[in-house]
Every structure is written in structure tokens, then in C-alpha cells.
DNA sequence: CGTATGACGTGCA
DNA sequence: GTGCACGCCATAC
């Protein structure tokens, strides 16, 4: 567990229900605005259910990816009230 | 330590 | 709007 990972987890956990954040936003909040790649990498390896990684989407509005499948991510977002027919 | 990879982003044709 | 290339950071090998 590195400090960066801890920060990312903490930030993602603090994402309110019904809201979404972009990878760049998370990286910026973590103090590394240009580490959005690392953010995705960490979330990809992170299988911790306490982390709502499904609330992290791409800056262009795309769903992005998900550990358990992008389809489940889209479904979760729909359940939380995020408007996403398919992609944007 | 150097290379390769990845849930990305931006710029340019 | 689409496609390609470059950059940037952390992790794995």
C-alpha cells in the first residue's frame, strides 16, 4: 500500500452517492494531476468493495472500465441515478 | 535499474 | 466526429 494508493482510495470513498468523478479529478485531488493513468491502474487492481470505483469515469464522459466488467459499472451508475443510456 | 503495460488525456490530421 | 501519436504516472517483471 503506497501513499498514492491510500490517497486514491480515500478520495474515491468520499465520492457522494449519485455523483461521479473523472480519473483526472481524482488524480488532481490526490495531488498528481498528471497521474490519471496510475489512478486507473490502482483502481483496476483494487478489488476492495468499500471503494465505489464505479463512480470514476473518463473525462470525455465515457464509462471507462471496471474490475467486474464495464456493463456492471454502467448498471450501478444507472441505479445511483447517473444518466447514462449506454455511453454518454 | 530499464522496459513494458494500463480502468487515461490532449493535440493534430 | 474519427483515428493516430505522444506524454505522464505507478506497478509488474
TrEMBL record:
Limits of the Methylated-DNA-[protein]-cysteine S-methyltransferase DNA binding domain? 3-82
Gene3D superfamilies associated with the record = Winged helix-like DNA-binding domain superfamily/Winged helix DNA-binding domain
InterPro entries registered for this protein in UniProt: MethylDNA_cys_MeTrfase_AS, MethylDNA_cys_MeTrfase_DNA-bd, MethylDNA_cys_MeTrfase_DNAb, WH-like_DNA-bd_sf
Catalytic activity field: a 4-O-methyl-thymidine in DNA + L-cysteinyl-[protein] = a thymidine in DNA + S-methyl-L-cysteinyl-[protein]; a 6-O-methyl-2'-deoxyguanosine in DNA + L-cysteinyl-[protein] = S-methyl-L-cysteinyl-[protein] + a 2'-deoxyguanosine in DNA
Q: Name one Pfam family in it.
A: DNA_binding_1
Superkingdom is Bacteria
Q: Which residues form a coiled coil?
A: none
Keywords for the protein's UniProt record, in alphabetical order: DNA damage, DNA repair, Methyltransferase, Transferase
Q: Name one GO biological process term.
A: DNA repair
One GO molecular-function annotation for this sequence?
methylated-DNA-[protein]-cysteine S-methyltransferase activity
Q: Which PANTHER family match?
A: METHYLATED-DNA--PROTEIN-CYSTEINE METHYLTRANSFERASE
Q: What name does the UniProt record give this protein?
A: 6-O-methylguanine DNA methyltransferase
This protein's species is Candidatus Yanofskybacteria bacterium RIFCSPHIGHO2_01_FULL_41_53
Amino acid at each position: 500500500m503506497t501513499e498514492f494508493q491510500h490517497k486514491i482510495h480515500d478520495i474515491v470513498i468520499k465520492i457522494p452517492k449519485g455523483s461521479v468523478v473523472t480519473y483526472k479529478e481524482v488524480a488532481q485531488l490526490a495531488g498528481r494531476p498528471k497521474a490519471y493513468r496510475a489512478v486507473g491502474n490502482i483502481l483496476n487492481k483494487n478489488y476492495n468493495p468499500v471503494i465505489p470505483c464505479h463512480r470514476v469515469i473518463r473525462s470525455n464522459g465515457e464509462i471507462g472500465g471496471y474490475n467486474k466488467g464495464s456493463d456492471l459499472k454502467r448498471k450501478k451508475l444507472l441505479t445511483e441515478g447517473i444518466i447514462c443510456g449506454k455511453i454518454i
